[in-house]
Design a protein that fits this description.
alpha+beta, 10 strands, elongated
């Protein structure tokens, strides 16, 4: 009979079935650990998703160049400000027409920029809307995939239209004035976008709508007979915005979130380590009994590993479900109502979490090995081993 008992294997599922409450506590703790880590990343990285939309996605459709004009020659000495402004704007229109002839350019639109701020969960972002002539509005809207959903398109100077996400994000309303600009329309658009009708402003740049992404817009200056001067000329192309995104957005987010993640990992895993160590201590007498009736330490260890693997696998599955639900709920209740564009899936963060769990699983071998080392036969079960 004794030999038969020795040859049997300890079933981890037997303990799990008989101790559902204790196992459930560990599963829930690990699941919430996954959810907290990922949701914190989701909230912080929403700023990254919004920055990509502002800085990178729109620059795949257009680029901006601008140049200064020198009116210090004698031929301009007798010109008043209105006349100089007309000359300035006419030169911009002439250069726009030159660029319109290029194969990759849909339309070059002279414009005056107005900055609109948007608020992600972390930090602040801004983008420029173009004040343009009314006749250029249709091509701009079509190129950006923007359609009218409320109000009327801008018709008069200082009237502007904004996309719905910006309106929600800033809490703007139809007819509201923003620095002397009146909102007359709400647009549906995949990007943070807006435009308005120019008034007495001078053009400061050309908003160049392109068929394909222009990574380096300095190549456009020779097409209008000018040489790019980095000290005086305006340049907003894909490379410029990628550099700004990498330096001012991504790096800042990575630096700020790195310490947050480290703090969360340490706090949660230390707490779970203490909980699991207490859990092992409570089961000491049980393992001493198994050892006394003939089970080897190896059998007990394999049983513990089976329980631990079951706990981790169920926790990962449950954590995935909880995290997915929380992300969708946050998007529905917080992100979309506030005009925030977010990303659900972050493969790198999922890999980090899984690696952290593998590390945690490995660290738990220390208290498990120690607990196995302290196992005694039934004669020693009453000893105060801890």
């Amino acid at each position: 009979m004794e030999q038969k008992i020795k040859s049997q294997k300890l079933s981890p599922m037997r303990y799990i079935r008989n101790n559902k409450r204790r196992v459930s506590v560990l599963v829930v703790s690990l699941s919430l650990c996954i959810a907290i880590i990922y949701v914190v990343n989701f909230l912080v990285m929403t700023a990254d998703a919004m920055a990509k939309n502002v800085f990178l996605d729109t620059r795949k459709l257009s680029c901006v160049i601008g140049f200064t004009l020198n009116f210090e020659d004698d031929e301009y000495a007798d010109k008043n400000n209105d006349e100089l402004k007309k000359i300035w704007n006419d030169i911009y229109r002439e250069n726009a027409q030159k660029l319109d002839q290029e194969e990759n350019i849909v339309k070059a639109i002279p414009f005056y920029p107005v900055t609109i701020q948007i608020s992600p969960p972390v930090g602040m972002l801004g983008y420029n809307i173009s004040l343009i002539e009314p006749e250029n509005a249709d091509v701009l809207l079509e190129h950006m995939g923007a359609t009218l959903i409320e109000g009327h398109l801008p018709e008069k100077p200082n009237e502007i239209a904004l996309d719905k996400a910006t309106m929600l994000n800033r809490g703007f309303s139809m007819g509201e004035k923003i620095n002397d600009f009146t909102i007359t329309a709400i647009l549906k658009c995949d990007y943070y976008f807006g435009y308005g009708i120019i008034g007495n402003e001078r053009y400061l740049g050309l908003n160049i709508l392109t068929k394909e992404c222009v990574e380096d817009a300095t190549t456009l200056f020779p097409l209008i007979g000018r040489e790019y001067n980095k000290d005086t000329d305006l340049l907003d192309d894909y490379n410029t915005f990628m550099h700004n995104y990498e330096v001012y957005v991504k790096k800042e987010l990575v630096d700020s979130t790195k310490y947050i993640y480290v703090g969360i990992f340490i706090l949660l895993f230390v707490s779970l380590f203490v909980v699991y160590t207490t859990y092992l201590r409570d089961r000491h007498n049980e393992w001493c009994l198994y050892c006394s009736i003939g089970y080897s330490r190896r059998s007990i260890y394999l049983s513990i590993m089976g329980e631990l693997l079951f706990t981790f696998i169920v926790a990962i599955l449950a954590g995935t479900v909880i995290t997915t639900a929380m992300v969708f709920i946050l998007d529905a209740l917080m992100m979309r109502p506030k005009g925030m564009m977010c990303q659900y899936f972050y493969p790198d963060k999922i890999l980090e979490i899984l690696c952290a769990f593998v590390l945690f699983f490995g660290l738990l071998q220390l208290p498990i090995r120690y607990a196995l080392y302290k196992i005694r036969t039934i004669d020693a079960m009453e000893d105060d081993l801890y």
